[in-house]
Design goal:
Length: about 500
């Protein structure tokens, strides 16, 4: 890899996190004037598709080491499915994308290199319609397809490697200590005033325009974009200094709302009902992110909705109550709720999966396995159910079947670190320590813990079941991990 490409990668990684995740910069003008000239996109000459893919994976790993990314298979399946629906109707349908949920209450969404698009659980819960969530994702997809991030990186190409590395370190510090992060960033900018990065107004307008086209082509409501922007703007009056990060990196002005409203009105009006998948995923996120469900905030929320809205919405509220009962270890109550839901909706996979999960959480593993086994037959293409079934199989000491199922899961599941952890556990139960350490190493690497990954590879190399083929694989991965570790150290 060339010196220029390495420099570009480090700089872009710094920018990607800076414009998306940093909670410490209040407004650009408080630190320095941040502008980007409208430049032609020559970024394709700086980084190849293979390097962009590698860079995106590196970015995703770095996120895992700093923030909590959802690993619930049903939620991941939902956010990926809505993202794929949008990208299929974008102006770059063949571009690889990976969508994920950050388990943070802050309102934020961001696009990173390599098509990695994250959305915070707090933003999802703020949406009042599925089209609103889709509008945010469509906007972020457009930042990727229009290569705004790489245009910004190109404009920052003058930044030296040490300064880019310092910026990245400051940003990562900022996720843990806002005061330290902001002080470090200001120091770096003081010595590198030419480092002027942000999405421009033109970038935002282009992402709105292209995103709205994608939204309409994907059968979502174009009017949801200005509606959500308007609600975000109205909500800012209650935040004071704590403006949501999404509004810092994507400023919402009256003119922007007016522009998107006018553009949306050019599309024919029709009803866009929310999918049940959206409603169920949102209910599950609400329960998962409830820090203290015993205070009954989530329970009261769903109780109030069991007699409101459409029959479908009332059913979702019952599902939410079942999840609250499960989280508070009221297993009998959860069992009764999910049994009733399955009786009325036998073809709804989430209700049946929740019933199996009730047995799993109550440590009734044989019952859980029996239920999941039935579900795998009923929903053979549902990888979320298979993932939960695998965990249950490992509990009842059936690692061979668990391994077979793991190896059958699609590539998108492989991006979830827990996949590698389960594979490592399966091989451990199969008394194959070399393979077990190999896959636990991949889990640690996916979580951004390269040193732990190296230690696992070294353990695998001393295992008694090591063979020539596996030894070659381990040597290759160890060398790769060493290279990654060395590059990370140079970036500090």
């Amino acid at each position: 890899m060339s010196f220029k490409t390495k420099m570009f990668k480090r700089t872009t990684l710094s920018i990607a996190i800076c414009v998306s995740l940093l909670p410490t910069i209040q407004y650009a003008e408080e630190i320095t004037k941040i502008e980007l000239p409208d430049m032609g996109d020559s970024s394709g000459t700086l980084i190849s598709p293979a390097e962009e893919k590698e860079f995106g994976e590196e970015f995703f790993r770095s996120l895992h080491s700093q923030i909590t990314i959802n690993q619930d298979p049903e939620i991941q399946d939902y956010i990926q499915s809505i993202g794929q629906k949008l990208t299929a109707n974008s102006d770059a349908p063949s571009h690889p994308f990976h969508f994920f949920v950050v388990m943070e209450n802050d309102i934020n969404a961001f696009a990173g290199p390599g098509g990695y698009i994250g959305v915070n659980s707090g933003l999802i819960l703020m949406t009042e319609a599925e089209s609103e969530l889709a509008s945010v994702l469509a906007h972020e997809i457009s930042h990727v397809t229009q290569r705004h991030l790489f245009r910004a990186a190109e404009a920052a190409g003058r930044l030296s490697i040490p300064s880019a590395a310092g910026m990245l370190a400051a940003i990562l510090l900022g996720t843990q200590s806002p005061q330290m992060g902001q002080a470090a960033i200001m120091a770096i900018m003081g010595g590198n005033i030419q480092f002027q990065i942000n999405f421009t107004r033109e970038n935002e307008e282009e992402a709105d325009r292209v995103g709205m086209q994608t939204l309409s082509a994907s059968q979502f409501d174009p009017r949801s974009m200005p509606t959500f922007f308007e609600r975000l703007q109205q909500a800012t009056r209650y935040y004071g200094q704590s403006v949501p990060e999404f509004l810092r990196t994507h400023p919402v002005t009256a003119s922007r709302i007016s522009d998107t409203r006018g553009r949306a009105e050019t599309y024919p009006y029709k009803q866009y009902p929310d999918s049940l998948h959206y409603q169920l995923a949102k209910a599950k996120i609400r329960v998962i992110t409830d820090a203290d469900p015993k205070k009954n905030a989530s329970k009261e929320y769903f109780m109030a909705r069991t007699s409101l809205g459409t029959p479908e919405q009332r059913t979702v509220a019952k599902y939410g109550l079942g999840l609250v009962a499960l989280k508070t270890e009221q297993f009998k109550e959860a069992e009764n709720i999910f049994q009733a839901l399955i009786h009325d909706y036998p073809e709804q996979s989430q209700y049946a999966s929740a019933l199996a999960n009730a047995a799993y959480d109550a440590h009734n593993y044989p019952i859980a396995v029996a239920r999941y086994q039935k579900l795998v037959g009923q929903f053979p293409d549902n990888d979320a159910i298979k993932s939960e079934y695998i965990s249950a199989l490992l509990k009842v000491k059936k690692p061979d079947l668990a391994r077979t199922l793991l190896l059958s899961l699609n590539y998108q599941v492989h991006r979830i670190p827990v996949y590698w952890e389960l594979l490592g556990q399966a091989y451990s139960d199969l008394k194959q320590p070399a393979e077990s350490h190999r896959y636990i190493a991949e889990y640690y690497f996916a979580m951004g813990q390269t040193q732990d990954a190296i230690l696992q590879i070294k353990l695998a190399q001393t295992s008694p079941d090591l063979n020539f083929q596996l030894s070659s694989i381990l040597n290759e991965r160890l060398n790769f991990f060493y290279i990654q570790q060395a590059e990370a150290k140079r970036s500090r």
